[in-house]
Amino acid sequence: MTKYLNAKEYDILDMILHSEEPLNVSQILKLRPQFTSNIVQPVIRKLLKFKLIEVADITMDGNIFSRRFRVTESAPDTIRKMFQDDYIHFSKLVSGQSLMSAMVEANDNPGQVMEEIGELEKLLQEYKEKSRNSSKEK
Fold first, then answer.
1. Helix/strand/coil (H/E/C) assignment for every residue in the chain
2. Residue 120 above 90 pLDDT?
3. Cβ neighbours of 30 (radius 10 Å)
4. Domain check: are 12 and 78 in the same one?
5. Looking at residue 41, what is its pLDDT?
6. 124 and 64: one domain?
């Protein structure tokens, strides 16, 4: 099974993704005091390698230059590909119904769960219509 990111890497990516402004390493360390520079620096390199983040700009942090990072435009597609790869492996181990159930149960916000279920229903309906149309053409 392909393992792209670990929990700390997802955490740092999530921080950068949901930040209003690009973040530098010092800012990440302030937001997650349990991390050290020795943890954050390799994570940043890995996220750059996967093209999930990019250097937004270079600023002065005290008396040193500091790179600030933001999520790339291609990050959502890359994250989707990572999920698809993992889904392929998990679907060989458990049913699709179990995987969908796990996705829904993982969220503890009932309003958001209902919204996601609605989106899934819409997606499934579109897929059914697309399948019907392609089978009629044959």
1. CCCCCCHHHHHHHHHHHHCCCCECHHHHHHHCCCCCHHHHHHHHHHHHHCCCEEEEEEEEECCEEEEEEEECCCHHHHHHHHHHHHHHHHHCCCCHHHHHHHHHHCCCCHHHHHHHHHHHHHHHHHHHHHHHHHHHHC
2. no
3. 10
4. yes
5. 97
6. no
Instruction: List C-alpha distances in Å: 125 to 91, 95, 110, 132.
Output: 21, 20, 22, 11
How many other β-carbons are positioned within 10 Å of the β-carbon of residue 123?
10
Half-sphere exposure for 59 (CA within 13 Å, toward CB) = 14
Q: CA separation (Å) from 99 to 25, 26, 91, 102?
A: 35, 38, 8, 5
**Average pLDDT estimate for 40-59:** 96
**Phi, psi angle pair for 12, to nearest 5°:** -70, -40
Co-location of 12 and 64 in the same domain: yes
Can you read off the two tokens belonging to residue 73? 């435009």
